[in-house]
Amino acid sequence: MDADLVGAGFDVGHLHVPKTNVSRKTFESRYSATADGSLPSGTNGQGTHGAALIHAHAMLPGAHAPARGRSTPSGPVPPIVKQNITLALASILDLSGGGIAMGEFVSEFIRKDNVAVTLEGKDDQAMKVTLRSALGPLELHVPVLARSRLPGMRNFPEVLVSGFNLDGPTADGKGLLARNLVTLLNPSPVEVRMGDRVQFGIYSAESGNRLGSMIAFDADLPPGRTVLNMSGVIQPQEGGLPDMSHLFSNYLTGKATRVSVKGENVTFGGGVDTPGWLLKAVRNISMDTVLPGAENLTITTDLELSVLNMSFVPPPGAPADPDPATYVPMSSGVVHGTVHVPFSNVPMDILSTNVTFEYDDLKTGRPMAKVVGTN
């Protein structure tokens, strides 16, 4: 079979299928002529059954097709049968235009709910059909036209990050090695082989700053949910440290952080060059997800106020000789406690802290003072 493949309006390329087997799903009469060759009343030559996957019509010598709009043909017509068949096609696609159209088609397929696909061989010799009959094997040549809407990947409607681990600093000391598990949902019936190494950029959903990159190895996406082991580097761009502070603060307090994931690169092992159309499709991937916060993590425990001093001092900005009536209380003391750091492989030093304490009235339980301390 020789046919052109058109996907999402793009002329993708040409298919040549040397041979394929046929699986018969159903076999039923489309319509049967009466004894005098006329068609049953009400069929109008169209039949009453649902549309088949593929319709093949062969006219025998001397037979006549029903005239359009007439319920009775002009001559005898033998019974016509319909077979619903499935063709298992395995072929190399000869891409047109250097694969540019293929890249556009795959990008549409990844983004959209569904895409239109047409397989068309306009030549009367497009498909050779071998029939087994009482006369022996017969070879017929017919044109090919098959249209369908292929369910797309809908831009991965579910992207779940189920783990977040830091394994230490990078060799140059400018980033952090990270790894996590990501579950992707492919709602399409098509299995997608994306590449041996697919790199995704991680961006802040709020500022758009790039925070780092993650690599998915052996990224095969069959229909349904797939769990990918990903590893990479957290290395925010210039101006991205506030975003990392926000991300880690959320993580330590059990809050989720919205991030955007964008395809950046794809490579194959063994020195195989990456097809340009696949690289284009990967770079068009853009997904939104959340990085979950830590579960059941308490940052500080065993806090103990061991020393507390109270004094009265001039208020900030007071003149050189202030009125004692304007003095304000100042509290100082020493607090001991334990800080729990979740990433044991990452060296961290606590340089300073800003702590806010509230003093409650023991009788009423209402706040009566607030102390803001720095260290």
Gyration radius, in Å: 35 Å
The top level CATH class name of the largest domain: Mainly Beta
When the domains are counted, the total is 3
SSE string, helices as H and strands as E: EEEEEHEEEEEEEEEEEEHEHEEEEE
Cα-to-Cα separation, first versus last residue: 78 Å
Largest sheet: 8 strands, antiparallel
Q: Assign the CATH architecture of the largest domain.
A: Sandwich
Number of helices: 3
Mean pLDDT: 78
Shape: elongated
Per the CATH scheme, the topology name of the largest domain is Immunoglobulin-like
User: Which band does the percent of strand residues land in?
Assistant: over 45%
The helix content is under 10%
Low-pLDDT residue intervals, each spanning 5 or more residues = 25-70
Number of separate strands: 23
Supply the helix-strand structural class. mainly beta
Give a structural overview.
- This protein has 375 residues and is mainly beta.
- The protein folds into three domains: 2-42 and 52-67 and 81-151, no CATH class; 159-291, Immunoglobulin-like (Sandwich); 300-374, no CATH class.
- It is built from three helices and 23 strands.
- The strands form seven sheets. Strands 10, 11, 12, 14, 15, 17, 18 and 19 form an eight-stranded antiparallel beta sheet that branches. Strands 5-2-1-6-9 form a five-stranded antiparallel beta sheet.
- A hairpin with a 6-residue loop joins strand 11 and strand 12 (176-186).
- The longest helix is centred in the N-terminal third of the chain and has 12 residues, at 100-111.
- The relative contact order is 0.11.
- The model is unreliable at 25-70 (pLDDT under 50).
